[in-house]
Queue: 4 jobs
Job 1
Amino acid sequence: MPALLRRLCLFALCLALPLRAAELTIDLGHGAQVYRTEQLLARPDARTVNVPDDVSFKRAMHYRAVPLKALLQGAHAEDALLFVASDGFAAEMPAAQILQAHGSEAWLAVEDPAHPWPSIAGNKVAGPFYVVWTDPQAMRIGPEQWPFQLAAIRRLAPAAERFPAIVPDPALKPDSAIRRGFAVFQRTCFACHTLNGQGEARLGPDLNVPHSPTEYLRESLLRAYIRDPQSLRLWPQARMPGFDRQALSDAELDELLAYLRHMSGRKAYPGRP
């Protein structure tokens, strides 16, 4: 057989082979469940979801998606859930936010290998699985709660139990600004940053050791950086999103900074007693 004909035959064979499906692992503590792309796309509860202002694509998008809570059978409202992406991002969310949603609804968008999604900024890909929200403003869903390149979902004990070095002084009153800032930190920062060397994420630097950003940036610059990272350091390849007032109110930003200033006096270095 002539070489050109052999190449054409091999090319036709490759086209005829099914595209390799991706897998998502969900472990809620009673045995891991693995979902494949074709299984999810064929589910009877899969539907087309319209997202008018997608956080990652910065435009309207349409997805084939499954209600996320339908995949979390066995989870409890008091559980914490860790969403692990293949690029190192790890977002922790309370299960109640998904199971007992009031207005906003979480969906697992599933990329069809035959019809891949476009690239997002920096030629990154969002697939194969992506958590998207309808009506995110109803529950003030922040950008860190839209994990893409999703590979696994795991049930966790509360962050304070797993990572004691991120917990503020136990003597603080429950309603103190610092304790409220600790909750804001877990929601907005812990998906990308560690603190005192503790945490699951590996995208951003540690926010307390060797120095807290409250120690080397004056407050006005730190506030501007959190609102719009490019306003302080022009770096098109940077991965940190800005947090506008819809995602992070001025009061919540005050509380976050109170927590970070407090923790700058409670440093714990990884590997040291």
Job 2
Amino acid sequence: MKTRRYITMMLFLLMCITAMAQNNLSVGKLTGGQGKDVLIPISLENTDEVVALQFDLQLPFDRSSRTAPTLSQSRINEHTVSVRNLGNHKYRVVVVNMSNRPLSGNAGTIINFPMAVPTGLDPGTEYVVSLSDVIITNRKGDNIQGNSNVNGSYTVQREDAPDLATTDVNIT
């Protein structure tokens, strides 16, 4: 009898743990060239309805001034994005819907954040793009973020050498 009760309690506890919300942000891992503007994809996987989110994004380089952050059309539901420069390549990003409508879907890119990659970098070097102070909220304003937010990176690719070939060489 005690064993059955113990097993029942353990199964109930296991069900409660697996039913906990998994609402997590992640930053993509990109490889690209130098002297370009790139878009850093920031994705959200959510099991709950998400109305708004806020996070700090630490970039290795400056934000591109030529391109604005864009929200993914497949996930937004009349949401808007605002960005505040906190200095030292750190930005506070807020995605909100003033009518308290949730984001569409449960997985995928939420925002593409522009970054200007300078020239003169060492090829093959990986630069970290990190998230901090993540807040994900539901309709009630509760913070429902999980504990598995994932940082990303930008790796500078090696430039392809020109493909030179010689033909018909004549020496006189």
Job 3
Amino acid sequence: MARKELATASDRLESAAANTGNDDAGERLGELASQLEGLSTADRGPDHGRLARIQSALNDLQSGDGGDVAETIDEADDAINEYRSDLEGV
């Protein structure tokens, strides 16, 4: 089952990784993009906790090393929030 919002978030983070001027931030953004890509097609979707940890990492990157691509990170975060809005639980 494809989860469109998570795939969109992954695409945004790949773009951010490619466009950031910071190698460390680019590597971390790429790792997060890969995680979201895997979650978008996994047999079972992620829970709120897993997504919250990813969003926390995005927040840290956005306010630090990834500041030059903050808008793109915001777009990825918005896509994750959209997915979470339909997720049962917390």
Job 4
Amino acid sequence: MKLLIVEDDTDYAAALRDSLRRLEHEVAVARDGRDALLALERDGYDAMVLDCMLPLVDGATVVRRARDRGQRLPVLMLSALGRSADKVDGLDAGADDYVVKPTPPEEIDARLRALVRARAWTRAGDAPADTLRVGDIVVSPGQHRAWRGDRALDLAKLEFGVLAELARHAGHYLTRAMLIERVWGYDFEPATNIVDVQIRALRRKLCAAGEDDPILTRRSVGYMLRG
């Protein structure tokens, strides 16, 4: 893959560049957000590894401007430990995934390959046999990964389970009891609103980039994922 690393820490950028080159990638480095945007305009890349905290133009702004210009390459954000706000800003701006520095180059490589595969699936339909598609939502139960459009969804285990179950039965309402049995594995309905809590969390992530809510609620019936 042809990759662009955007990182102002010279030593870290060089080490990551060299490691990804050893993994047979072609790698360029930009030192700040302005140079990153110029590089994206000048050259075509398969994916970008982008630090959140950058001089001149921050990472979230780089993603937002790139998306506004129609650039759809996968973006993996680099975040410092404990800076959750940076991750949220980056994902809201259009990034596909994030890791906390320092992350082993092999994991970065694996995540980039997964993001590029996902982008290819959403464009060409070349998905694994277990892939579920509902409108612009793609769910891969085997890989435990999901996307909405070009955006990877960072879902907790239960959120993913609920989404996968709704996707399997898209167009049909599932009751809370059905979801509890199939996702939680209970054969009884707890005296709590555990399903509603997960649905609310799932909706926030599905609609994080301003998309329409794809989950319909019917009072006293349940939930349905619409295409």
